[in-house]
């Protein structure tokens, strides 16, 4: 057997080109075998351990599989020197390419490791308050930049210091190229240190048509899922340079504001007569108010003596004042209104659309659907109860109003105009 092997080796030495080819094939086979052993046996064994410990991030991000690619590259890098007959230039190219591939593999594995760190950190309860994704992306960029320099230096077979010495002259160019990254990094630091936004915050930025929840904060962009389920990708630096509204304070307070007005017809405002006051005493919420108000007004009018005989000199109860008191007491007794926050019912300046009676209060929930239901229930009731106070809601005449007005004129016997005639004046 040894004699046959010796004869075979002597024959190969007599044919150097064939010897080089066989040695190269053997080296490639050895690299493939090493890759197969590592991935089929070692990597699978590690994955089994990972599954048993329920830590699947290593498998999900493929960090172990990436590192296993280093083994065949090392086999090629070391074994290429043993291949006889290879030109020195070919040996150098193979070693440099393998070295660059090893550096690239390590850089990708470190990037995957940073992704694992971010995923593990997001499991913390306070991860949304101080996200680290932006910082990890900066570290990842630095790793890839260093890896790029090392790969280039390895491929051209030069010292990395030679490339680094030339970076000083390229500083202005690099600043121009990476200006967005630098600005985004500064913005990320300010956002985190000042706690401007967090994942889960409801933010509103009208100039960019963004209105929804923050779902991701990265180095370059902040993702906002709008209420129509679209996604807005906003540059991180825009949260420093532009104004925006963060509704986190409302959500943390436990109450959401209701600020809406009823526009009343000013011609329906009048003093209450004795019979109207008696009728309003039926309201449980107004009985005590009307009694106290009547006592206060009688005491005031008694001081007027003879002048008090003229109604124009006396104080009287108005229907709008009684309605305002009723609305305030109604809100005080409402189960959906937060009683620890500002609550008031006030008149605003009269407008051409009527007299605004503004309801200003807070619900005891910040859930959108519940908030809208409470607000709608309140105004449903107020609109329906208005006629009890002799008040009317103001609205512009519609086509139906004009038709009813024309019908009323016809019933009163007003002469109808011929089609060719025009109204006087």
Notable features of this structure?
alpha+beta; rod-shaped; 425 residues; 5-stranded antiparallel beta sheet
Q: What is the topology, as strand order, of the major beta sheet?
A: 4-3-2-1-5
Q: Kindly, what is the distance between the CA atoms of the first and last residues, rounded to a whole number of angstroms?
A: 131 Å
The total count of helices amounts to 17
Spans of at least 5 consecutive residues with low confidence: 416-425
- What does the overall shape look like? rod-shaped
**Strand fraction:** 5-15%
> Roughly how many Å is the radius of gyration?
41 Å
State the helical fraction. Answer: 55-70%
Judged by helices, strands and strand pairing, the structural class is alpha+beta
How would you state the average pLDDT, rounded?
82
Largest sheet: 5 strands, antiparallel
Descriptive account of the structure:
With 425 residues, the protein is α+β, with helices and mostly antiparallel strands. Helix content is 56%, strand content 11%. It is built from 17 helices and 8 strands. It has a 5-stranded antiparallel sheet with strand order 4-3-2-1-5, with no helix packed on it. The protein has a 3-stranded antiparallel sheet with strand order 6-8-7. Helix 5 (70-79) runs antiparallel to helix 6, helix 6 (88-121) runs antiparallel to helix 7 (133-155) and helix 14 (284-302) crosses helix 15 (319-332). The chain starts with a helix and ends in a 14-residue tail after the last helix. Residues 416-425 have low confidence and may be disordered.
């Amino acid at each position: 057997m040894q004699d046959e092997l010796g004869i075979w080796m002597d024959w190969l030495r007599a044919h150097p080109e064939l010897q080089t080819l066989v040695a190269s094939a053997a080296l490639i086979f050895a690299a493939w075998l090493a890759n197969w052993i590592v991935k089929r046996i070692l990597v699978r064994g590690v994955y089994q351990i990972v599954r048993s410990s329920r830590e699947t991030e290593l498998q999900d991000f493929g960090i172990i599989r990436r590192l296993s690619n280093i083994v065949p590259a090392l086999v090629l890098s070391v074994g290429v020197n043993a291949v006889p007959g290879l030109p020195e230039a070919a040996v150098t190219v193979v070693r440099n390419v393998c070295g660059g591939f090893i550096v690239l593999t390590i850089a990708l594995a470190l990037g995957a490791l940073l992704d694992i760190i971010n995923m593990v950190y997001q499991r913390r309860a306070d991860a949304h308050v101080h996200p680290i994704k932006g910082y990890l992306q900066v570290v990842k960029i630095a790793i890839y930049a260093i890896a790029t320099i090392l790969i280039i230096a390895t491929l051209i077979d030069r010292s990395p210091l030679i490339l680094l010495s030339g970076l000083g002259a390229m500083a202005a160019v690099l600043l121009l190229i990476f200006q967005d990254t630098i600005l985004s990094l500064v913005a990320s630091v300010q956002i985190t240190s000042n706690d401007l936004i967090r994942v889960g915050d409801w933010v509103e930025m009208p100039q960019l048509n963004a209105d929804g929840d923050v779902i991701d904060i990265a180095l370059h962009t902040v993702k906002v899922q709008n209420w129509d389920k679209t996604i807005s990708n906003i540059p991180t630096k825009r949260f420093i340079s532009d104004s925006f509204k963060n509704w986190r304070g409302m959500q943390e307070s436990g109450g959401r504001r209701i600020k809406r007005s009823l526009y009343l017809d000013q011609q329906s405002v009048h003093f209450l007569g004795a019979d109207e006051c008696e009728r309003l005493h039926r309201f449980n919420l107004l009985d005590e108010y009307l009694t106290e108000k009547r006592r206060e007004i009688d005491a005031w009018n008694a001081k007027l003596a003879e002048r008090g005989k003229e109604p124009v000199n006396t104080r009287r109860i108005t229907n709008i004042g009684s309605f305002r008191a009723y609305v305030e007491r109604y809100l005080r007794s409402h189960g959906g209104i937060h009683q620890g926050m500002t609550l008031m019912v006030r008149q605003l300046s009269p407008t051409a659309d009527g007299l605004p009676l503004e309801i200003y209060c807070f619900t005891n929930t910040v859930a959108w659907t519940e908030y809208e239901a409470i607000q709608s229930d309140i105004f449903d009731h107020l609109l329906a109860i208005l006629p009890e106070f002799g008040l009317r809601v103001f609205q512009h005449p519609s086509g139906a109003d004009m038709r009813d007005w024309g019908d009323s004129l016809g019933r009163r016997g007003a002469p109808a105009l011929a089609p060719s005639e025009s109204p006087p004046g």
